[in-house]
Structures are given as C-alpha cells and as structure tokens.
User: What shape does this take?
Amino acid sequence: MKPKLVVLSGAGISAESGLRTFRDSDGLWEGHDVYEVASPTGWQNNPSLVQEFYNLRRKDVLAAMPNAAHSGLAQLEQWYDVRVITQNIDDLHERGGSTRVLHLHGEILKMRSVHDETTLYEIREDIQMGQLAPDGGQFRPHVVWFGEDVSMIQPAVLEIVQADVFVLIGTSLNVYPAAGLVNYLRADVPRYIIDKKIPPVSDSHSWTLIEKPATEGVAELLDLLRP
Assistant: This one.
C-alpha cells in the first residue's frame, strides 16, 4: 500500500499561475474590501456586485493554466496516495493532474441555490441575477464566504489524521478553521512547508522548511520524497 501524503495548499500555489490573492494587498481584493464581496452581508447589501466579482474570478480561473507546482504534486501519485486539501476555489490542482482534491472553500466553477448548499451545478459562464435554481432560489457561486460554515472541514480532518507525510504549501495559516488542520497531525509524521515566506508554526523545529516559491519548492520536494 502506498503511504498517504496529504497536502494543504493555499493561494501561493495559484499565484504563479497569475491568480492573485487579497491577502497580498492590505485586505483589498481587486480593489474591494473583502467583506463587500465575500460575506453574507455583502451579498445581502449588493448581490449584483458580488455576482459580478465572482464572474470575473471565474474568467480569471478559466484563463489560467496549472503550473509546475500543480503538476509536480500530481507526479507524487506514482509513489504516494496523495490527497490534496486546498483552500483555493480554482481547479488548477485537477487540471495539473491530481486525482483526489478536497476544496475547503468551494469551487468557482460550480454554483448553487441560495436555499440549498448541497445540490451543485457546473458553471463556466457568468451567473446572472434572476437566474434561478429549480427550487426557485437565486443561483450564487459555490464558494464559502467569511462567516459561513466550512462544511468540508470534517472530511479534511479525517484525511489529516491518517497522513503518513504532510506538505503545507502556499498558505499563510491565517484563515481558520483551515489553519487549525495542522494540529491534527500525528506527532511522528514528516512535515514540509513550501512558501516564499514561511508562516509561523509552533513546532518549527519538526518541519522541513523550503523557503521558495511553489514551483521551485515542489521541485525540491520531489527530490526529497522520490523513493
């Protein structure tokens, strides 16, 4: 049986594909206060603005290509049972070749009714205001906004507790509950951090630190983990 390698990825892995993160720019995301465009209150106040914001993000994702970090993680499936837990709403891990990807914060290429978060519909075009689900609710992006429950956190915990190797890549560990996942690792699990700016971790001595951008860092990781 292949050892289980669990990856927790954040915006840093998609940044090299040209997808920007609001954390890099003082809490502004494409010129908007993040709570205006990524919270239930923002949706209540101005649903058209929120819809347009995510329609633009969807176009960005569709135009982006996976980079060498995405494809490098997929290569590890030759030797490991790789499970990717991502905070990203893009599909670059899947397009890069990873076959088991859990999206903590939703997926921009899916939509759902405002009344039902479990029935999902593929979407590659814009979602229009007035475009209704079969249950009569307005369609919205299938993304987790600030203040909403992260329903995939329990499945993610189940992956983490079974990890034989763990890799943290491109995440600042600022967003909870995702940042708390590292606390579920067994003490003896080899763990690696890839980031051009290593985030603070309480037991840094037990981590292998690779202070590089994701593409360079994953290339180094492949050398370290290849049997």
